[in-house]
Amino acid sequence: MRRSMRFLAMAALGAGAFTACDPQPEPAQFQVDSYAAGADATPGDGECETAAGTCTLQAALEEANAAGRTVVTLPGSDSASYAGFDATITGSLRVVVEDTGSGASATIDSGSFTVPEGASLRLEGVEVLGSISVSGTLVANRLGAEAIDVSSTGLAMISNAVLLPDVEPAFVNRGDAWIVYSTIGLEDGEGGLVTLDYGNTTIAATAVLAIDTTSAVTCSGRLPGSLGSNAVSDSACGLTGTGDQQGIGPVGLTELFPSSGSPLVDVIAPGMLGCGTDVTNDARGPYGPRPSDGDGDGIAACDIGAYELWAPTAF
Asked: Per the structure, how many domains does the chain have?
């Protein structure tokens, strides 16, 4: 249990579990200044610059692969959308969203990320309208994605995430995966957590819910381990942790936010599963504080899933 809680805390904080082994030199830094597509004019020269003189996301990632250890910063807003492409990460990359004071995030429109064995990717406040394939290490906090696939050599630590699959299952794992305070929303025929071969998936404070349908299957393959306080639409996950809820049906979410009266609201007491200690924000970052008194009973507690229902008095 001590090892489980250590991993839970790292994932919930979006901590860079791989940074302890990183080399001492400071990482390269690139500031993206264009939403457009465009390759780097001279990859490896240490300058993020396209032929048009801008620093696009594609150009920054190409320079990042050459630099080895890099931080890429994206200007964020409520509608920031960057041209996507298929990117393979070869070093240690951290992609963060510049805080503009409103809980900003950044959307990468289509495309995919591939993280080979030996590489690491850390995403903070990023929505990927595509898939992420992991054979190395993925640490993600405040993540949005359609699908994540973890190979037998992969490690994924996911927190405050929203996964909305299009066709393929939301999360396929053959390696090691930890998912905490996240929401997986399923529609007709889609799969939630699929654990294959010798993969190990552990979840806590996570909702795997069908949205307006009863045909989606929450879990298949090897059953996930539970650290407690999860909510799923059916009994396919076989959860037995403290506070786990199964068979709650396609209810409890309004556009992925818990609604008033939802069984997801105010169920995790402060101090449990890092609520209010290690875990102090939801998927909106500092603009979505945890815990909150979402049911208005005068006692703040954490909600299951990626988002908190804010206290009625906050409005």
From this structure: 1
